[in-house]
Amino acid sequence: MQQNLFVYNTLTRKKELFKPINAPHVGMYVCGPTVYSDVHLGNCRTYISFDLMFRYLTAIGYKVRYVRNVTDAGHLEGDAGDEGEDKIAKKAKLAQLEPMEIVQKYTVGFRDVMKVLNNLPPSIEPTATGHIIEQIEMVKVILEKGYAYEVDGTVYFDVEKYNKTKDYGILSGRNLDDLLNNTRTLGGQEEKHGKLDFALWIKAKPEHLMKWPSPWGVGFPGWHLECSAMSQKYLGSHFDIHGGGLDLVPTHHTNEIAQNVACCGTNPANYWVHTNMLTVNGQKMSKSLGNSFLPHELFSGENSILNKGYTPMTVRFFMLQAHYRSTLDFGNEAMEASEKGFKRLMNAFALLTDGLKASATTEVEIAPLMERCYAAMNDDFNSPVLIAELFEASRIINSVYDGKLKIDAANLEQLTVLMNTFVVDVLGLQNEQAANDDLPKVLNFIVDLRSGAKANKDYATSDKIRDGLSQIGFQLKDSKEGTTWSKA
RNA sequence: GGUCGGAUGGCCGAGUGGCUAGGCAGAGGUCUGCAAAACCUUUUACAGCGGUUCGAAUCCGCUUCCGACCUCCA
């Protein structure tokens, strides 16, 4: 925990030294998915980015409570007025299913994808439907403090009143006049006092499936409310990090801050962290644009955009090769480059794990490399620079393995610590070898047969074995010490 | 239209006043029966035009192009 970590804060638009409110404890809240359809790859990028932060904070000694919600109610379809319809309820009607069936299906799907991408589970994963009471209580407080008003069973947040004493645009950097002048006029908003006002609680129509009783009648919570209520419940009214996708800044997080300030008098988080978008041909990947594709399509290659499938770890590595605040453009060429790079890194790691020979003397010092790895991550979680350093480590490992470089036991030990810390713990990368215990024995036997053929200069046979294994997906490497194999 | 952000070599992608980012691809070499892998060497760059500076990809201004948000979105 002796690291000086700098984090880019959207509030100040600067990198700031990270100082937890109550070290070594860190509270981190990340806006999770709305579970009304499959997560797409862009969503995955965001959660991989926050997983990286969670892992690094933990690796440098912090005790992190990582809260990531699942929004299973209240998320509006269409505009923010009462014309909107609950996304989950809408899908349920179409599919002739109970809303909670939809929620269950996509929650399970989301968790499965998170797991294959090797994202650690958050400490707490609260749901909106599980916190209706907390949300109603928050609406009551905001009403009491005078920042909200009720119209016919729906409660709205009064943005213009709030902005008289507070700064509504503190996060987005926009001032209220600009917002008022540039907001498009939408229908169905007659009952709102101001056009920026948003719903805290929404009156349910009779046919609405997901609804709860409240002091204002039967209804359901507004979209932004659950994050305010749940972050407060599990992290307190003032915690360290609040994160989400960059597209949440102007509306969701702006409203969230307003709700918390109105309710508790304080901006809930010291550091607001936002991840950038995944693009396809330069355009944001999104459900509404129709250019999104699903994780399993990427893994299997079953999408017209894709030349082939890529393993989950290749996808993770691809995303970590870009900084979280840059847009990342998806492409087949880039994916293939990452696939090969990832393999190179993991091959070196495997050589290290299998055991390298230590010498009495050393020609390399690992300590400076270790420092550079920490420095990269301390600079706002700069994983691409970290990965560049890990390729330097790989070069050292390969050279030692080839007998071209000497390393002593102390430095070898440090190199092992470095690779384990950064590849496994921080980046969350893991080998994807087929988990079949018999396979290595069979392969070793075949390799042995081939070595016999080679010794007899029966190259026709030895090449046939090598080419055959290559087609199945195993690569043979001949060297003076003998032949080794690896999964291609 | 308003607000904000971006433009880096064949591709992806770091960097931010002077020192090689890195990966993939390309070229040459070492090794090998031949390969592959690995190692060594190496080509291609900072959108355009001005300005500040001893020195700018990096700072400032303008131009062009692209994107995000303003409406549900990670």
UniProtKB/TrEMBL annotation:
<dbReference type="GO" id="GO:0006423">
    <property type="term" value="P:cysteinyl-tRNA aminoacylation"/>
</dbReference>
<feature type="binding site">
    <location>
        <position position="287"/>
    </location>
    <ligand>
        <name>ATP</name>
    </ligand>
</feature>
<dbReference type="GO" id="GO:0008270">
    <property type="term" value="F:zinc ion binding"/>
</dbReference>
<protein>
    <recommendedName>
        <fullName>Cysteine--tRNA ligase</fullName>
        <ecNumber>6.1.1.16</ecNumber>
    </recommendedName>
</protein>
<dbReference type="GO" id="GO:0005829">
    <property type="term" value="C:cytosol"/>
</dbReference>
<keyword id="KW-0963">Cytoplasm</keyword>
<feature type="binding site">
    <location>
        <position position="227"/>
    </location>
    <ligand>
        <name>Zn(2+)</name>
    </ligand>
</feature>
<keyword id="KW-0648">Protein biosynthesis</keyword>
<dbReference type="InterPro" id="IPR024909">
    <property type="entry name" value="Cys-tRNA/MSH_ligase"/>
</dbReference>
<feature type="short sequence motif" description="'HIGH' region">
    <location>
        <begin position="33"/>
        <end position="43"/>
    </location>
</feature>
<keyword id="KW-0030">Aminoacyl-tRNA synthetase</keyword>
<feature type="binding site">
    <location>
        <position position="252"/>
    </location>
    <ligand>
        <name>Zn(2+)</name>
    </ligand>
</feature>
<dbReference type="InterPro" id="IPR015273">
    <property type="entry name" value="Cys-tRNA-synt_Ia_DALR"/>
</dbReference>
<feature type="domain" description="Cysteinyl-tRNA synthetase class Ia DALR">
    <location>
        <begin position="372"/>
        <end position="439"/>
    </location>
</feature>
<feature type="binding site">
    <location>
        <position position="31"/>
    </location>
    <ligand>
        <name>Zn(2+)</name>
    </ligand>
</feature>
<keyword id="KW-0479">Metal-binding</keyword>
<comment type="subunit">
    <text>Monomer.</text>
</comment>
<keyword id="KW-0862">Zinc</keyword>
<keyword id="KW-0067">ATP-binding</keyword>
<feature type="binding site">
    <location>
        <position position="256"/>
    </location>
    <ligand>
        <name>Zn(2+)</name>
    </ligand>
</feature>
<dbReference type="InterPro" id="IPR014729">
    <property type="entry name" value="Rossmann-like_a/b/a_fold"/>
</dbReference>
<dbReference type="InterPro" id="IPR015803">
    <property type="entry name" value="Cys-tRNA-ligase"/>
</dbReference>
<dbReference type="GO" id="GO:0004817">
    <property type="term" value="F:cysteine-tRNA ligase activity"/>
</dbReference>
<dbReference type="InterPro" id="IPR032678">
    <property type="entry name" value="tRNA-synt_1_cat_dom"/>
</dbReference>
<keyword id="KW-0547">Nucleotide-binding</keyword>
<dbReference type="InterPro" id="IPR009080">
    <property type="entry name" value="tRNAsynth_Ia_anticodon-bd"/>
</dbReference>
<comment type="similarity">
    <text>Belongs to the class-I aminoacyl-tRNA synthetase family.</text>
</comment>
<dbReference type="Pfam" id="PF09190">
    <property type="entry name" value="DALR_2"/>
</dbReference>
<keyword id="KW-0436">Ligase</keyword>
<dbReference type="Pfam" id="PF01406">
    <property type="entry name" value="tRNA-synt_1e"/>
</dbReference>
<dbReference type="GO" id="GO:0005524">
    <property type="term" value="F:ATP binding"/>
</dbReference>
<feature type="short sequence motif" description="'KMSKS' region">
    <location>
        <begin position="284"/>
        <end position="288"/>
    </location>
</feature>
